[in-house]
């Protein structure tokens, strides 16, 4: 949520939160309103002609607050992997989590298709040389190997569906991201690409 704080010159101060609860008239020097809302931003009152000030202020503050909430929610509401592109921007991948041995064994097997911008992240407890294959996997994949420092250590591009060939990059990795084939080339993803995660917790370090 975007947080606003401090007095508004010439208008006094407004206590603004996410939704109205009540408003009441008070004060001896003229009409004034005190607005009680749900989460802290401005604190105070607007003296005299509050209907004019409020008409101008509430839409702008509400828009900023809602925008901030949407931004935070969109990043954290679902498991997401962000990768820095060669243009200095970030590309996001909505991911399913493969934490347990069984989830990692099945992976993306038997899927008839994989939407662009979606994939699966395999989470391991420690960095190791990871080896994958494409048994029962029906769509070509890019397999992105990520070190414990959240930097890409290598990529296997366009892995062949149904192949039993072992696939590895020969460098220790703690996380492995599977996405649709061609993703890495399209976004310039390769060794050294920085990665960050949102919407899920990493395995606890002992």
Order of helices and strands: EEEHEEHEEEEHE
How much of the sequence is in beta strands? 25-35%
| Percent range of helical residues | 10-25%
Strand order of the largest sheet: 8-7-9-6-5-4-10
Radius of gyration: 25 Å
Q: Mind describing the biggest β-sheet?
A: 7 strands, mixed
Shape: globular
Number of extended strands: 10
| Overall pLDDT confidence | 75
- What is the CATH class of the largest domain? Mainly Beta
Q: End-to-end span in angstroms?
A: 34 Å
Number of helices: 3
Number of domains: 2
The CATH architecture of the largest domain is Sandwich
What is the CATH homology-level superfamily of the largest domain? Protein of unknown function DUF192
Detailed description of the structure:
The protein is an alpha+beta fold. It has 2 domains: 22-76, no CATH class; 80-198, Jelly Rolls (Sandwich), CATH 2.60.120. The protein is built from 3 helices and 10 strands; from the N terminus they run E-E-E-H-E-E-H-E-E-E-E-H-E. The protein has helices at residues 50-76, 101-106, 183-187; strands at 22-25, 32-36, 46-47, 80-84, 90-98, 118-129, 141-146, 152-159, 172-180, 195-198. The strands form 2 sheets. Strands 8-7-9-6-5-4-10 form a 7-stranded mixed beta sheet. Strands 1-2-3 form a 3-stranded antiparallel beta sheet, covered by helices on one side. The radius of gyration is 25 Å and the shape is globular.
